[in-house]
Backbone:
C-alpha cells in the first residue's frame, strides 16, 4: 500500500483516524503522523493474515511433537509413519486429538510405530526388494 | 642469565610405549575409547572443589520431577554433564515445549532447579589449567611446544551501558567466572538458549542454579541423597517347607 493512497484522498481521513485509535502520542491525533503509521499497520495486517496460517501450523507441529515424545516417538517419525500407513490426518486434527483425546492419539502413534518398525531378522534375508 | 635446561630433562627412562601422556603435568594415559580425548579442568587438582571428609556417603538420583500446587519442579544434578546439553534440556523444560498445551506467548513452562553446578563439565579447550610456575623457563617451554594449553578459549562479555560507557565490555574468562560465581556459567548458557523476547526474564525467574549439592527449597525433594544401609537379612527360625519335610 502506498502512502499516496491517503494523500490523494482514496482513503478518507475518518478511516485513518479510526485505525489509528490505539496508537501512542501524536500519531493518533495528527493526520500527517497518523497517515504514515496507519499505512504501515494496514500493510502489516495484510501479510500477517497470510502469516497467521503458517504460525498456526508451526504451533500444531510443536504440540504434536511434545505429545508424541511422551509416547517415545518423534514428530518426524510420526509423520512419515502416517504417510506410510496412508492416514491423511492433518496437523490441526492431530493437535486437537492430542489435547482432548489422548487415547485416540496413542492409537494413531501405535499405527505409525508399526509402519516405522525396523525389519526383523527373517525379512533381513529377503532380497526381493533389492 | 641463561641457565641450562638440563635440570628439567627427564631422569628416568619411560619403558612402556603404550602409556602416552597428554601433558607434562599429570601421567594420564590416553584411552582411545573415551568419549572425549582432550578434557580440561578449570583449576589444578589440588584446587578443584572437594567433598568434605567427615560427610556421610551420598548418592545421586540424577534427575527428579516433583509436582506441587504451584506446578512441576525438575531438580537436575549437573555433576559430569556437559554445559550445553544440560542448558538445552533445561531451556526446553522452562519454555514448556515438552507439554501438549505449549503456547509461545505464555509462560507455561516448569521450574528447574540445577544443583552441583560447580562440578559441571566443559568439553575441550574451554578451560585451561593454570600452568603457573615460578620458573620462567618452564612456562616458556610450555608456550613453545603446547601453545593451545596457554589460552582460555571461552570468554564472557558483560555489557554495562553498551554504547555510552567508554570502558566497554567487562570481559571474563570462563575460569575466572567459575572462581567468582560458578552458577553463572549454567544460567548464562540457559539464557542464551531461551528465545530472545520479553518472556525470557520470566523463564529465567523459574530457573534456580546452586553450586552446592543441596538446594534450599522447602518441600522439594533433594537429588543428592544419603546412602541408606539395608538391614541385614536374618533367616527365619521357622519355615513352612521345613515343617512339611519334617512331617513327611
Residues:
Amino acid at each position: 500500500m502506498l502512502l499516496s493512497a491517503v494523500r490523494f484522498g482514496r482513503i478518507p481521513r475518518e478511516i485513518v483516524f479510526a485505525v489509528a485509535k490505539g496508537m501512542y502520542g501524536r500519531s493518533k491525533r495528527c493526520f500527517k503522523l497518523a497517515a504514515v503509521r496507519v499505512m504501515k499497520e494496514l500493510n502489516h495486517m495484510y501479510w500477517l493474515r497470510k502469516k497467521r496460517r503458517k504460525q498456526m501450523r508451526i504451533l500444531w507441529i510443536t504440540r504434536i511433537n511434545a505429545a508424541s515424545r511422551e509416547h517415545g516417538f518423534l514428530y518426524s517419525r510420526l509423520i512419515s509413519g502416517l504417510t506410510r500407513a496412508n492416514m491423511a490426518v492433518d496437523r490441526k486434527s492431530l493437535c486437537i486429538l492430542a489435547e482432548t483425546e489422548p487415547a485416540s492419539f496413542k492409537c494413531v502413534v501405535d499405527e505409525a510405530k508399526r509402519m516405522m518398525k525396523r525389519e526383523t531378522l527373517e525379512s533381513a534375508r529377503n532380497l526381493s526388494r533389492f | 642469565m641463561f641457565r641450562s635446561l638440563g635440570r628439567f630433562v627427564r631422569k628416568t627412562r619411560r619403558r612402556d610405549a603404550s602409556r602416552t601422556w597428554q601433558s607434562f603435568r599429570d601421567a594420564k594415559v590416553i584411552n582411545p575409547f573415551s568419549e572425549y580425548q582432550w578434557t580440561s579442568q578449570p583449576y589444578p587438582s589440588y584446587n578443584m572443589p572437594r567433598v568434605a571428609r567427615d560427610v556421610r556417603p551420598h548418592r545421586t538420583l540424577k534427575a527428579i520431577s516433583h509436582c506441587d500446587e504451584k506446578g512441576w519442579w525438575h531438580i537436575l544434578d549437573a555433576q559430569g554433564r556437559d554445559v550445553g546439553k544440560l542448558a538445552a534440556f533445561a531451556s526446553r523444560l522452562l519454555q514448556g515445549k515438552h507439554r501438549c498445551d505449549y503456547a509461545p506467548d505464555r509462560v507455561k513452562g516448569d521450574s528447574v532447579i540445577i544443583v552441583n553446578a560447580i562440578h559441571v563439565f566443559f568439553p575441550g579447550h574451554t578451560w585451561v589449567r593454570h600452568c603457573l610456575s615460578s620458573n620462567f623457563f618452564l612456562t616458556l617451554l610450555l608456550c613453545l611446544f603446547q601453545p593451545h594449553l596457554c589460552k582460555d578459549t571461552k570468554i564472557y562479555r558483560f555489557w554495562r551501558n553498551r554504547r555510552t560507557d567508554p570502558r566497554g565490555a567487562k570481559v571474563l574468562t570462563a575460569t575466572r567466572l567459575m572462581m567468582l560465581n560458578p552458577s553463572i556459567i549454567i544460567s548464562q548458557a540457559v539464557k542464551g538458549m531461551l528465545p530472545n523476547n520479553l518472556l525470557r526474564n520470566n523463564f529465567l525467574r523459574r530457573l534456580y542454579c546452586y553450586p552446592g549439592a543441596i538446594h534450599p527449597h522447602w518441600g522439594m525433594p533433594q537429588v543428592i541423597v544419603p546412602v541408606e544401609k539395608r538391614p541385614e537379612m536374618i533367616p527365619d527360625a521357622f519355615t513352612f517347607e521345613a515343617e512339611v519335610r519334617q512331617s513327611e
Summary: Residues 83-95 of chain B form the longest helix (13 residues). Helices of chain B lie at 83-95, 136-145, 174-180, 183-193, 200-205, 240-247. DSSP finds six helices and eight strands in chain B.
